[in-house]
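Re: that chain you flagged

S.,

Sorry for the slow reply, it's been a week of failed gels. I finally had a moment to sit down with the sequence you sent. For the record, here it is as I used it:
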Amino acid sequence: MAGPKTLVENREGTLHLRGPLVFASVGAVLAQSLALLPRQGAAVIDMSEVAQADSAALALLVEWRKFAARHGLRLELRAVPAQLRALAAAAGLDMLCA
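Prediction finished late last night. Pasting the structure tokens below so you have them in one place:
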């Protein structure tokens, strides 16, 4: 049985995620998103279509932030799901969602 599928699309320079950000999907989402993110300048990741998020999604945010720091990339996260914001707040990692 296949795990949950999350789609990562680049639409006009913004990465759009659709589906769950959970343990079974974040590895693929990380690989897809890093391949699509620019290596300089600014990037926007829109999560308005993320259906579900668990603590693995926090690890994904950490990896995106590390990537951005390594490449001097300004990273903007849009429509971070409330579930993910709550997890970040509980872990004292609110700054990841900014």
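What I noticed first: The beta strands are 7-11, 14-21, 42-53, 74-78.

Talk soon,
D.
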